[in-house]
Design brief:
The structure is a homodimer of 143-residue chains. Chain A has 143 residues and is of the alpha+beta class. In chain A, 45% of the residues lie in helices and 17% in strands. The first copy, chain A, is globular. Chains A and B meet through helix 5 and strand 5 of A and helix 5 and strand 5 of B. The structure holds a DNA duplex (30 and 30 nucleotides).
Chain lengths: 143, 143
Amino acid sequence: MSCASEYAPQLRSRGFRMTSQRMAILHVLRHAGTHLAPGEIYKLARQEFPRITEPTVYRTLEFLAENGLARPSHTGNGHFTYQIAGEDHHHVVCRVCGSEIEVEHQLLENLYRTLESTSGYVRIDSHMTFFGVCPECQKSYSS
Amino acid sequence: MSCASEYAPQLRSRGFRMTSQRMAILHVLRHAGTHLAPGEIYKLARQEFPRITEPTVYRTLEFLAENGLARPSHTGNGHFTYQIAGEDHHHVVCRVCGSEIEVEHQLLENLYRTLESTSGYVRIDSHMTFFGVCPECQKSYSS
DNA sequence: CATGTTATTGCAAAAAGTTGCAATAAGAGT
DNA sequence: ACTCTTATTGCAACTTTTTGCAATAACATG
């Protein structure tokens, strides 16, 4: 069995099922090490389990995100990208060249707690992508 | 001329042009008072200027966002939604029922400055949408 | 106000993402 | 192991979003 089968009990205890499709996708996400677009995930997952289809990939990614096994993150073009859960960090993307870096979640903790007390909403813990201009591109514009 | 023509000089000074399509879309955004999905904007803009096409709507929204006249904001399903610029606030969306509230930008200022100094990136000023659970839905889960 | 440059658009076709529903298969119970 | 329930998938059709390129029209200039 693949390393992804360790998620099975977690799913079963909530009344869900572990399937080859979900294993394939979890496997892909675990080995990616970074976030991937649904299309890329589809191509890679097909190498694990060729009968998988696109609608299944989209539905599975949404399912995994709802159940905390995957993390969706927004990209600059308005689409989702997914990564395996557990890597608790955020991104800052350069709006000029697209390069990106990670940001510790710790830096956002205060804000999240402030938002909760001022808004009345709880369990605010979204994965965020911020946009700015990276050091490299700052140089090009100052010359 | 529509109220949207006040944007014309702003565009022309940067070498861009004001067109009927852009006026129609700006008009729609100004009268919406809230954010709209591209599809809705297309339908409404067609009432202003029937020859407008979908690709133009998408391209124009991206253009307006790049030039600070419109603000894209992420929705829970991974798509963009747009609103007229000038309303400087962020959103918290309930991940259960979808209700949302606005958050003053002031609350994020500190975080943005911290991100800039720790990351080296500058001009971080993205519009953000956070996800949490609203007071109403908290009740349903505590019963 | 006619002209030339080129930013912007429309068209057509492709790619990406979504939906409804019947068929399949996970896994609980026997 | 077999059966039954129903969560999950595949299929097919559909909607949304993107792309390349030729045609159009904004507007700076003379």
